[in-house]
Amino acid sequence: QVQLVESGGGLVQAGGSLRLSCAASGRTFSSYGIGWFRQNPGKDREFVAAISWIGASTDYLDSVKGRFTISRDNAKNTVYLQMNSLKPEDTAVYYCAADRTGWGRWQNNYDYWGQGTQVTVSS
Fold first, then answer.
1. What would the pLDDT profile of 51-96 be if each residue is shown by its tens digit?
2. 67 Cα distance to chain centroid
3. Side by side, which strands form the sheet with 78-83?
4. CA–CA distance, 26 with 111 (Å, rounded to integer)
5. Cα end-to-end span (Å), the chain
6. Residue 27 CB: number of other CB atoms within 10 A?
7. How many CB atoms lie within 10 A of CB 37?
């Protein structure tokens, strides 16, 4: 069982930066792939970024490539999403999720989800 808690969201002006954190409980955190997803009201949740269990591999939504960076510190049971050059269209609730058997873009593969953190980018 893994419990995930996101933090670091907030209100920022376009062009600004935020760093989201996903803190996990559980001794086996380092064996989980982690993904970040986002959702706006009335819209489907979409993939943002993912990282493999040792951090050797990452994947990004095309629209965030070069602006967002996902990383993990397994000693701290934490995954980060550094978001730079934020745009109003990045506004959403951001969720982290843990995959016991792999990692990637497919939401249905993820076993545990956090409660989300709101990111609002003003123009």
1. 998 888 999 999 999 999 999 999 999 999 999 999 999 999 999 9
2. 13
3. 4-7, 18-24, 78-83, 68-73
4. 14
5. 40
6. 8
7. 24
Where residue 54 falls (left for φ over 0; alpha for ψ -120 to 50; beta otherwise) is: alpha
Dig out the tokens for 49 from the structure.
């970024």
Beta bridge partners of 43: none
Beta strand 117-122 pairing with 10-13 = parallel
Q: Which residue has the tokens 């994947």?
A: 59
pLDDT tens digit sequence for 99-116: 999 999 999 999 999 999
Q: Which residues pair with 70 in a beta bridge?
A: 81
Q: How many helices (H) and strands (E) does the chain have?
A: 0, 11
Please, are residues 19 and 119 in contact by the beta-carbon 8 Å criterion?
no
Tokens of 112: 């545990």
| CA–CA–CA angle 67, 5, 27 (5° rounding) | 105
Distances (CA, A) of 49 to 1, 18, 27, 34, 122: 22, 15, 23, 9, 22
Please check whether residue 98 is in contact with residue 39, taking contact to mean a CB–CB distance below 8 angstroms.
no
